[in-house]
Amino acid sequence: MHKEKGKKEIILRGKTAVFIDWANVYGWKKSLKSEVDISILYKYLKSYKNIGEIYLYFGKDNHPKSEEFLNRAEKIGYKIITKPVKYILIENFETKKIYRRKCDFDMEVCIDVHKKVAENFESFVFFTGDGDFEPLYKLLVELKKQTKQ
Is 7 a member of any domain? Predict the structure, then answer.
């Protein structure tokens, strides 16, 4: 990959897998002041010859935009991991109930990482803001694997 002016290049060692927790990445739009485009992100990641698989974790619900997003991501080339979104009641205010969407993929990411370790992947890139992955990162470092968050 040729480094573009003003863009930082990631140095990757050996076969690399990427894990994207979309709920966290989608939330970055507040700090980035724009939405992350899944097409541009995929094209950027695939510009690195070492990157093999790119996993995208996404909570599925009955909303048409959810289905549209998943179809688009699959056509782009992402390896899609999904499960149903849970709706957790957080407040019952008079006649109005307020629910929070919840769909954690911590276990699925960990299982997929362990599979990639068994397949001799050397580098692991994580797109998540989730601090729960710290033990996984530490394990990968102990196994002499490269991690990027």
Answer: no
Q: Specify the pTM.
A: 0.86
User: Is 120 within a domain?
Assistant: yes
Q: How many CB atoms lie within 10 A of CB 24?
A: 15
Closest C-alpha among 19, 13, 34, 8 to residue 115: 19
**Which residue range(s) make up the domain with 52?**
16-148
Does residue 8 form part of some domain?
A: no
pLDDT in tens, the chain (149 residues): 445 555 678 889 999 999 999 988 877 766 777 788 999 999 999 999 999 999 999 999 888 888 999 999 999 999 999 999 999 998 888 888 998 888 889 999 999 999 999 999 999 999 987 788 999 999 999 999 999 87
Number of domains into which the chain is organized: 1
CB 78 within 8 A of CB 116: no
Q: Are strands 51-60 and 79-84 parallel, antiparallel or unpaired?
A: parallel
